[in-house]
Write a structure and sequence with these properties.
It is a single chain. With about 300 residues, the protein is of the alpha+beta class. It has a single domain, classed as Sulfite Oxidase, Chain A, domain 2 (Alpha-Beta Complex). Helices cover about 20% and strands about 20% of the residues. The strands form two sheets. Strands 3, 4, 7, 8, 9, 11 and 12 form a seven-stranded mixed β-sheet that branches. The protein has a five-stranded mixed β-sheet with strand order 2-1-10-5-6. The chain is globular and about 50 Å long. The structure holds the ligand Nc1nc2c(c(=O)[nH]1)N[C@H]1C(S)=C(S)[C@@H](COP(=O)(O)O)O[C@H]1N2 and molybdenum atom (MO). The site of molybdenum atom has 6 residues, from loops. The site of the ligand Nc1nc2c(c(=O)[nH]1)N[C@H]1C(S)=C(S)[C@@H](COP(=O)(O)O)O[C@H]1N2 has 16 residues, from loops.
Length: about 300
């Protein structure tokens, strides 16, 4: 069992207090946010202050939990909410594998009682052309990486979703669109500097509630400047590797889905434009922002890269 260092240990009581406040204050939060004071419950969180815009109104809890992509529960937008009732996300643990000094298993309960949970309001832009604004709770992935101490040659991280065909009906089904079964388990990956970036979080909740199954309970990745499919749900393995790892969508269709998949209005998907998006709840399309609006924070990660080649 991996121990979390004393430096990671924080005051659970403070978090619970804050959590209750968030729970109690949902209505006022939505109101305050829509009137423009985006960072009010988040004064200690400069990231949100600087990266959200006055036009970014939170999507409702209903929208965020009923319009989903989670193919393990089916391909329709309402399938994850409808078909995920059999999935039991507790107890949960995450395997840490590969090029690290401290491989092993981390219990989710252990993480939750030892790491400070923060609020992060992020835009989520799906590669299909829709988007939302979601108030996540979670913590920087870098905290886990620091604890498990990767070797110097761990240049990438691969993430794996749980494989439970008995609880996830989509894992049994044939998908004609892909001429066969989508290769399970769902895999994703990040370069180490992307994984260490402070905007990259592991999320355990949203709107002050534990994640529902359809959103990737009990713990999922959120990488706000990349297309939504990079934000892999219900993670059971975090694997440190030397070379760019296999990811589900680039394996299924490498021409359409690259490893990087940074939100980029100037690089179209082969079958549709990425210049605009539809914010769920709105009718008129809006312009898609470079790196989903997080350009100031993340463009340095890609400064010497051809973003057309590395899409
Ligand atoms: N394991 C897994 N993770 C996944 C997906 C999936 O099908 N399986 N869909 C991805 C896609 S395409 C998007 S847009 C986001 C959607 O997250 P949300 O449903 O919480 O909004 O989850 C991503 N993570
Ligand atoms: Mo997506």
């Amino acid at each position: 069992m991996i121990k979390i260092l004393p430096s990671e240990i924080t005051n659970r009581k403070d978090y619970m207090k804050r959590r209750n406040f968030i729970k109690g204050g949902l209505a006022s939060m939505a109101m305050t946010l829509s009137s423009g004071a985006l960072a009010f419950h988040n004064k200690d969180n400069l990231i949100n202050k600087s990266t959200l815009d006055l036009n970014d109104k939170l999507n409702s809890y209903y929208e965020i939990t009923n319009y989903n992509n989670y193919y393990e529960f089916g391909m329709g937008k309402s399938d994850p909410a409808t078909n995920s009732g059999e999935f039991n996300p507790r107890p949960w643990s995450i395997k840490i594998e590969g090029l690290v000094h401290k491989p092993g298993t981390i219990d989710l309960e252990h993480i939750l009682s030892n790491i400070t949970i923060e609020d992060r309001i992020y835009r989520l832009r799906c590669v299909e052309g829709w988007s939302m604004v979601i108030p996540w709770q979670g913590f920087s992935l870098s905290k886990i990486i620091d604890i498990v101490q990767p070797y110097a040659d761990a240049n990438y991280i691969q993430f794996e979703t749980v494989y439970r065909p008995d609880e996830m009906p989509g894992q049994k089904r044939l998908f004609n669109e892909f001429r066969g079964v989508l290769p399970w388990p769902y895999l994703e990956g990040l370069r180490m500097d992307e994984a260490m970036h402070p905007l990259t979080i592991l999320s355990t909740g949203l709107y002050g509630h534990d994640l529902l199954n359809q959103n990737g309970a009990p713990i999922r990745l959120v990488v706000p400047w990349k297309y939504g499919f990079k934000s892999i749900k219900s993670i059971v393995t975090i694997r440190f590797v030397a070379k760019e790892p296999i990811t589900t969508w680039s394996k299924v269709n490498p021409r359409e889905y690259g490893f990087y998949s940074n939100v980029n209005p100037n690089v179209d998907h082969p079958r549709w434009s990425q210049a605009t998006e539809r914010r769920i709840g709105e009718f008129k399309r809006r312009e898609t922002l470079m790196f989903n609006g997080y350009e100031d924070e993340v463009s340095d990660l890609y400064k010497n890269m051809d973003l057309i080649k590395y899409y």
